[in-house]
Automatic annotation (TrEMBL):
This is Amidophosphoribosyltransferase. PANTHER family: AMIDOPHOSPHORIBOSYLTRANSFERASE. [4Fe-4S] cluster binds at C291, C437, C493, C496. Its EC number is 2.4.2.14. Residues 18-272 form the Glutamine amidotransferase type-2 domain.
Length: 508
């Protein structure tokens, strides 16, 4: 098949889902406005969603109202200085969004705020409900009006329903959350704000990430590590408790990663600390199903999942790839930037020099309207410039983290050949993507995925490369599990690679 026969008008990469950030000030108070810290937290999660951003704050009193600011666009453009001043509070939650369900417009910006029997609640959601259409019809039949096209609003409405056990002693939010979890098993990480507390929830499969952090006093930030580099004991005092999709966002504000929210766990966060209220078991005792592509592509390399750093997993993917598919070349390079750790370890394992061959323009956004055929044909040349002196006349292997439609890789190979590469070999630090995802990641349809269009042994011809090889699924699993603690419960969703879905989609 000719490369030109594949659609090149749309983005060729995977699309992120959403990012959550919540904070509750402790008794000691914070030496900076809480809304500034939430804004900073969302900036650290910007890679998870670039369509819109929202923040909701409250003073946390029994009758306090919520202050809300939402806008389309990136975090730094969505909130003005006046917005940050207006967003006063002792607790708050924020959200960055990329739509997997629902249109990309202002009505779908999260967090959602609704009135419940016990007052206002604000809800932020990362994931995608496998039975969204079923739930929508059920709510409509019960007379519930919906104002958005987002499946996240369905969760918000479900949380307003009184639990079957009733509420004889006042609000029973654990019961309400359990009811919601029984209505839909996946996929969600949630932040729910009510009065003076935040509830942090992961679905029982743990498909989407969520972790807890601790904001340290300002004078403790500089002594978090000893001169030898070992982490010192955390101070007992905390200025705030944080819940976020990724731990990478903690560093910029002087916070420390504490632990992940466990699969199925309902965690209550107040000014007094963090309490695990219960863990909802998985149906039929299935293993957890944390999205393995968080390690491969989505997460920032300085984040921690399951007790290990993402960058370490990506390095192990590179080492495993080198063992499975070595290349006889002069140098190793990468498609910037998430594949860089894998490429450097690939080079080190085979004792081949590592050099950059592509310079990425980080300021090129998505181009929704292409003004001419000339600009359309430029393709990746708008995003990458060849570092010709580093590879002219040499044989090179270029490492990518994943290949979706294949259009970008074909254009990159052509760019490198035209700039003087003698040979271009392609290695991919993950298995072929063959199946769509319906649990919170926007993966194209089966018919758009290049690994389904042509056989793997014809991939090199399609890309114009000298060879193309992927990391095996077993190799990826080995790289991910190697860093886990002995006896740690673990399990990963590989549906987009294997077709083995942990939960059936009920709305197909």
């Amino acid at each position: 098949m000719e490369l030109s026969s594949i659609d090149t008008t749309s983005e060729s990469g995977l699309r992120e889902e959403c990012g959550l950030f919540g904070m509750v000030a402790a008794n000691s108070g914070i030496d900076i406005t809480l809304s500034h810290l939430i804004h900073l937290g969302l900036v650290g999660l910007q890679h998870r969603g670039q369509e819109s951003a929202g923040i909701v704050t409250s003073m946390g009193g029994p009758n306090d109202t919520f202050v809300t600011r939402k806008a389309m666009g990136l975090v730094n453009g969505a909130f003005s200085d006046d917005d940050i001043v207006i967003l006063k509070g002792n607790l708050g939650i924020g959200h960055v969004r990329y739509s997997t369900q629902g249109l990309s417009n202002a009505s779908n910006i999260q967090p959602f705020v609704v009135e419940s029997l016990h007052g206002l609640i604000a809800v932020a959601h990362n994931g995608e409900l496998v039975n969204a259409m079923h739930l929508k019809q059920k709510l409509l039949r019960h007379g519930v009006g919906l104002s958005t096209s987002s499946d996240s609003e369905l969760i918000t409405q479900l949380l307003t329903h009184t639990p079957d056990c009733g509420e004889p002693n006042g609000a029973n939010w654990v019961g309400r959350i359990k009811n919601m979890m029984q209505e839909t098993v996946a996929s969600y990480s949630l932040l729910i704000m009510h009065k003076d507390r935040i509830w942090a929830v992961r679905d029982s499969y743990g498909n989407r990430p969520l972790c807890i952090g601790k904001l340290l006093p300002a004078d403790a930030v500089t002594v978090m590590r000893s001169p030898s580099g070992n982490r010192l004991a955390l101070p007992d005092e905390s200025e705030a408790w944080i819940v976020a999709s990724e731990s990478c966002t903690f560093h910029a504000m002087g916070a420390e990663y504490v632990r992940d929210v466990l699969p199925g766990e309902i965690v209550e966060v107040t000014k007094n600390g963090v309490i695990s209220r219960c863990i909802v078991p998985r149906p039929e005792a299935h293993p957890p199903a944390f999205c393995i592509f968080e390690y491969v592509y989505f997460a920032r390399p300085d984040s921690r999942f399951e007790g290990q750093m993402v960058a370490s997993v990506r390095r192990r993917c590179g080492r495993q790839l080198a063992l499975e598919w070595p290349a006889d070349v002069d140098l190793v390079s990468t498609v910037p930037e998430s594949a860089t750790p894998a490429a450097m370890e690939y080079a080190a394992t085979l004792n081949i020099p590592y050099r950059e061959v592509l310079c990425k323009n980080r300021y090129v956004g998505r181009t929704f309207i292409q003004p001419s055929a000339r600009l359309r044909k430029l393709g990746v040349a708008k995003k990458f410039g060849p570092l010709v002196d580093n590879f002219y006349g040499k044989r090179l292997v270029i490492i990518d983290d994943s290949i979706v439609r294949g259009t970008t890789m074909g254009q990159l190979v052509a760019l490198l050949r035209k700039a003087g590469a003698k040979e271009v070999h392609v290695r991919v630090a993950s298995p072929p993507i063959k199946y769509p995802c319906y649990m919170g990641i926007n993966i194209p349809t089966k018919e758009e995925l290049v690994a389904n269009i042509i056989p793997l042994n014809e991939m090199a011809k399609l890309f114009g490369a000298d060879s193309v090889h992927y990391l095996s699924l077993e190799g990826l699993k080995k790289a991910v599990t190697e860093g886990l603690k002995e006896g740690q419960e673990t399990g990963h969703c590989t549906a987009c690679l294997s077709g083995d879905y942990p939960v059936k989609k009920l709305d197909w």
